[in-house]
Automatic annotation (TrEMBL):
<dbReference type="Pfam" id="PF03351">
    <property type="entry name" value="DOMON"/>
</dbReference>
<feature type="domain" description="DM13">
    <location>
        <begin position="178"/>
        <end position="282"/>
    </location>
</feature>
<dbReference type="Pfam" id="PF10517">
    <property type="entry name" value="DM13"/>
</dbReference>
<dbReference type="InterPro" id="IPR052126">
    <property type="entry name" value="Spindle_Org/Thrombomodulin"/>
</dbReference>
<dbReference type="InterPro" id="IPR019545">
    <property type="entry name" value="DM13_domain"/>
</dbReference>
<protein>
    <recommendedName>
        <fullName>Protein Skeletor</fullName>
    </recommendedName>
</protein>
<feature type="domain" description="DOMON">
    <location>
        <begin position="309"/>
        <end position="442"/>
    </location>
</feature>
<dbReference type="InterPro" id="IPR005018">
    <property type="entry name" value="DOMON_domain"/>
</dbReference>
<keyword id="KW-0677">Repeat</keyword>
<dbReference type="InterPro" id="IPR045266">
    <property type="entry name" value="DOH_DOMON"/>
</dbReference>
<feature type="domain" description="DM13">
    <location>
        <begin position="59"/>
        <end position="166"/>
    </location>
</feature>
Length: 711
């Protein structure tokens, strides 16, 4: 590598060396000296970064640690203005009073300060063996404020090893780039910010969404072209991108790709090979290294398709069978789903034939599912409807599990099935044409059934399983530490004068809503009371309260039949439970039992539901900063029918905490606190319900007006 670099630097000037030895002319000697003087600094600079080029980018190289005692050694990089990266650091741990030590004097000595270790502690250093870690200067001190960093023994004032910070050193820091060129489809942006070697923030990004197959696209060369690769969007999807209107988004380059591997980022349409707008990436940017953890993908089958930043499918067809492998960077309680679309002309969940793959603490599972509605599997007039296992709806489980593993946070399951299944409910995997497929990632519920999916495609996904040459667009998994999602403000209705609750349905609001508030998986819908999603209620024993229930009264509908029940169990879905489970639950209201002991709901009213506007992408729910703004975006549809009435009077036999939920589906409601005196409720909550009361009244008025208009 060094020899090639040397030849590339001197290039065509080598002719002068030939003349030097052939003619020994004085002019050529002077010219040669001049050339050498001009290239030696370039060569020295390239040589100093040789260690960087030989592996992943780790920041700006400061040098090897000068070793004096106790086997101190290693390489040191500047990660940003405040942080050092130690690579392959060694120290035998035998110093008496040894610390990481920094200062601004000319050389290490007693004038300095302790630098906390990799755990943020200022303890005496233990032994290190070939360890990689970062150190941050204390009190927001900057690297440019010190001249050296040492391994120093304060007791003996002995320097075991050090590295010096050069004068006029410029540590890595985020860089500002250009703006997207305005070519077509309203593409525009503010100046991009390159946050680190893999992360680009695009402020005020706009695109009208009217391209055919348009992606975030990157590559090398002077101008964008079709010879490039996709960048996952801000949510990790590799589908054609959605419309944007002055949104600030953050993109992460896929796999092990960094900004040093690309020359441009484009909004590129692959259908028409047209560049709608692009921004160039400057060379040799002095940016921090990415802290993203990169895990190489591993698959044993010849074909691989990246479905999402966190999901891959690979396959091989052999005779009448196909072997599939799903690999996903998922949590332990997540499922991966993949299969054939319910439509031959688009990717459609309804009617789909899929495998649901997951691992528990013991083994892996690949289970055949049939999708008749976007709801958990429930019994409708004696038949199971929704997302149901094939063997529950009279079919066969056609998938045979081969291998399973969980390693580095990645679940990998391999399984096979025949192309043409003996189960009439299964769809045929076609080899004479491409297949429309569907996929999803989500949480498992407490019964190890798939809950409403968190990630899923909004556009068509086509795969040709019978390619003449292997296809592979998969890349390494990447993972970074995300800041915890801040949920919307929790709602509590504490007003003792509110004793009537209007109960209807609405969307569950992503990770900031139902799931974030309760810690339960979501079914996609939730109860709304007096205009609020699953508020926590407070009721006094001895007082009577009324629920006006509009959750759907059509038992033929697996999606929208939700009688309201109140029990001492937090999750709901009483009708789905086994007899043994039902016997463990105390039903307080909303259910009566037949002579044969079968439960029958009593509070099934007409369907009143808040829906997303037409064309809205529910995957963007978490973009709303508050429930109030999220709720304003919904469209409420209430028929002009009388609600079902559920009247309750909590008494001394009721537990202190009970729950309102759906009779048919789990995870749709929340808790009711049963109290003896409102004065015992903390004063800190009193300021909340006054605002709730006025807003609840306003919401009630809105719904009443809608119903009057419908009349």
């Amino acid at each position: 590598m060094t020899l090639n670099l040397w030849h590339s630097i001197i290039g065509g000037r080598s002719c002068c060396f030939v003349q030097l030895f052939k003619f020994k002319s004085a002019w050529c000697i002077y010219a040669t000296i001049a050339v050498l003087c001009s290239i030696i600094p370039l060569y020295a600079e390239a040589a100093s970064s040789f260690d960087e080029d030989d592996g992943p980018y780790q920041g700006k190289y400061l040098g090897k640690i000068n070793s004096y005692h106790h086997q101190v050694s290693g390489d040191v990089y500047a990660v940003n203005e405040f942080t050092f990266l130690f690579v392959g650091f060694n120290y035998d741990g035998n110093g008496a009073d040894t610390f990481f030590w920094a200062g601004a004097s000319n050389r290490p000595g007693p004038q300095g300060f302790i630098v906390p270790d990799e755990y943020g502690k200022t303890n005496i250093l233990d032994r290190y063996h070939n360890k990689d870690f970062t150190l941050s200067l204390p009190d927001r001190k900057k690297i440019t404020e010190v001249k050296w960093l040492a391994v120093y023994d304060l007791n003996n004032q002995n320097n075991f090893g050090d590295v010096y910070i050069p004068e006029e050193f410029e540590p890595p820091q985020p860089q500002v780039g250009g703006t997207f060129s305005k070519r077509s489809h309203n593409v525009s942006s503010g100046a991009i910010e390159i946050l680190d070697s893999k992360t680009i923030r695009i402020p005020d990004f706009t695109y009208d969404g009217k391209g055919k197959r348009t992606f975030f696209w990157t590559g090398v060369g002077a101008q964008p072209s079709s010879r490039g690769s996709k960048i996952p969007d801000e949510m990790g999807y590799l589908d054609p991108i959605r419309p944007y209107s002055k949104e600030t988004i953050t993109l992460e380059l896929p796999g092990d790709k960094t900004i040093f591997d690309i020359d441009w980022i484009s909004i590129y349409d692959l259908a028409d090979n047209e560049n709608y707008g692009h921004v160039l990436i400057a060379d040799n940017l002095n940016v921090p290294p990415s802290l993203v953890q990169i895990t190489p993908y591993e698959f044993s089958l010849p074909n691989c398709r990246q479905l999402h930043k966190n999901l891959q499918v690979s396959w091989e067809v052999f005779g009448p069978q196909i072997t599939l492998q799903l690999s996903g960077q998922v949590d332990k309680d997540d499922y991966m789903s993949f299969g054939l679309s319910g439509s031959d002309t688009s990717s459609q969940m309804i009617g789909g034939d899929v495998v649901v793959a997951y691992l528990d603490d013991i083994r892996g599972y690949s289970i055949d599912y049939n999708i008749t509605s976007l709801a958990p599997c429930v019994q409708v007039l004696g038949q199971n409807k929704g997302v149901c296992r094939d063997d529950v709806v009279g079919g066969l489980d056609s998938f045979q599990l081969n291998t399973y593993s969980r390693k580095d946070g990645i679940n990998t399951l391999t399984f096979r099935r025949t192309l043409i299944s003996s189960d009439s409910g299964d769809k045929e995997i076609r080899l004479d044409r491409s297949n429309y497929v569907i996929w999803a990632l989500g949480k498992l519920d407490t019964n190890y059934e798939p809950a409403f999916h968190t990630y899923y495609p909004k556009s068509d996904v086509l795969i040709d399983f019978n390619t003449t040459e292997p296809v592979n667009d998969c890349f390494s998994f990447t993972k970074h530490v995300d800041a915890p999602i801040q949920t919307w403000e929790r709602i509590k209705i504490l007003d003792p004068t509110i004793r009537t609750f209007n109960a209807y349905l609405g969307p569950s609001g992503g990770l900031k809503g139902y799931q974030g508030w309760t810690g339960h998986v979501s079914s996609g819908l939730a109860w709304y009371l007096n205009g609020y999603m699953i508020p926590e209620l407070f009721m006094k024993r001895g007082l009577t309260y009324v629920f006006k229930v509009r959750g759907g009264n059509n038992p033929h509908s697996p999606d929208n039949y939700h009688p309201l029940v109140i029990t001492d169990e937090p999750r709901g879905g009483y009708d789905r439970l086994s007899d043994a489970k039902q016997s463990e639950i105390r039903v307080l209201a909303g259910v009566e039992f037949t002579r044969r002991g079968r439960p029958k709901p009593t509070a099934a009213g007409p369907l009143c539901i808040s829906r997303y506007p037409i064309g809205y992408d529910r995957r963007l729910d978490d973009n709303f900063p508050s429930f109030k703004k999220f709720n304003r975006s919904l469209v409420t549809d209430c028929p002009p029918e009388e609600p079902a009435i559920l009247e309750i009077t909590p008494n001394i036999t009721w537990p202190d905490t009970v729950y309102y939920n759906s009779f048919t589906h789990a995870n749709m409601g929340w808790k009711i606190n049963i109290i003896d005196n409102f004065n015992n409720v903390k004063n800190s909550a009193k300021s909340v319900f006054q605002g709730l009361r006025s807003f609840s009244t306003m919401t009630f008025v809105t719904i009443v007006i809608v119903m009057m208009i419908r009349f």
